[in-house]
Amino acid sequence: MNPTINRTILFALLSVSFLPSFSQNLDSLMEQNEPEETVYTSATFKGTRLINGHSVELPGKGVWQLMFSHRFGTLEDPVYTFLGMNQAAIRFGLDYGISNKLAVGIGRSSGLGGFVPPPTYDFYAKYKIISQSAGVINMPFTISILGALAIDTEKWPPGVIRTDNDRFAYTGQILIARKFSERFSLQLMPTFLHRNLVEADDQKTTLFSMGVGARLKVSKRMALTAEYYYNQSNTIGEGFYNPVAIGFDVDTGGHVFQIMLTNSTGLIEPQFLGRTTTNFTDGAKAVRLGFNFSRVFNSKKNNKK
Question: Which of 73, 90, 214, 269 has a CA that sits 20 to 30 A from residue 136's CA?
């Protein structure tokens, strides 16, 4: 055979034998040179409310969220009261995402006297300071801060002398959450509450509370939730208790439906932190059924940032 042809065949065989190794080295080099990205954690909680209180989540930029909440009477006589529905506290709320980090909201709670807190307007602003992430930026937590104002609009009884300033209550809260896996998230809620007027002499106008809540996803669209606030001792007064709630979330796509058992009738912080009048451990005579229902509306396109 011609020596030139032999050298050509030999070169071709060598090229074919070294080509896979060269290709792997080139891919490895390219992967090393690719810039690392930051991956942000999403859906730490499905809704903006954990159960009674807020979660770290906000409506997205340009998103309106209509929220409708109920808390019923206790389950002590469920047949006669139809699971407590003869008595009901109601809150209508509207939230709006100014940006993906800032949201505001307004709500109005009913008041029927007796066990139900007085009619109250509430306003809040929530800002997400940092988001849990991995990659270039490795952040183990998501942190949001909440500031809220509540105005009691109950008519004063005849002969009672009070000022309009007595109607105001203020809440400050830090929400710290971590999504440990696709199934489990945990949140801490150190909370400051100040009320210009309290109901009993042994209540403090200012109290500090530490809340803890969790979410366990049981399927693609369902999750179990729990929430508890420990109020600083000697601040809430005798006959008032720490709020407890156990819930079940159903996400139907655009709607989030939350049903819960709780000992609180309050639907905003000044009510469930300072006005919970039954002890969850007392069972049916203390525990009541409730639900939150939310629906979101996008007012802008390309909502993702």
Answer: 214
CA distance 164 to 286: 33
Could you tell me if 31 and 245 are in contact, meaning their C-beta atoms sit under 8 angstroms apart?
Answer: no
Strand ranges in 37-159 using DSSP code E only, listed in sequence order: 38-40, 63-74, 88-97, 102-109, 120-130, 133-135, 142-152
CA distance from start to end of the chain: 67
Average pLDDT, the chain: 87
Cβ atoms < 10 Å from Cβ of 244:
22
Q: Burial of 12 by CB count in 10 Å (0-12 exposed, 13-18 middle, 19+ buried)?
A: exposed
% of the chain with per-residue pLDDT over 70:
85
Res 164 pLDDT > 90: no
- Measured CA to CA, the distance from residue 24 to residue 170 in angstroms comes to 62
Owner of token pair 């001792």: 233
Q: What pTM was estimated for this model as a whole? A: 0.83
How many CB atoms neighbour CB 13 within 10 A? 10
Burial class (CB in 10 A: 0-12, 13-18, 19+), 250: middle
Query: DSSP label at 159?
Result: T
* pLDDT tens, position by position, 60-85: 999 999 999 999 989 988 888 888 88
Q: Quote the CA–CA distance of 150 and 154 in Å, as a whole number.
A: 12
Neighbours of 262 (CB within 10 A): 24
Nearest CA among 204, 184, 208 for reference residue 195? 204
Joined together, the tokens standing for residue 56 give: 């770290």
Residue 142, both tokens? 């998501």
**Phi, psi torsion values for 200, nearest 5 degrees:** -135, 155
pLDDT-derived band at 108, boundaries 50, 70, 90: very high
Are the C-beta atoms of 295 and 92 separated by less than 8 Å?
A: no
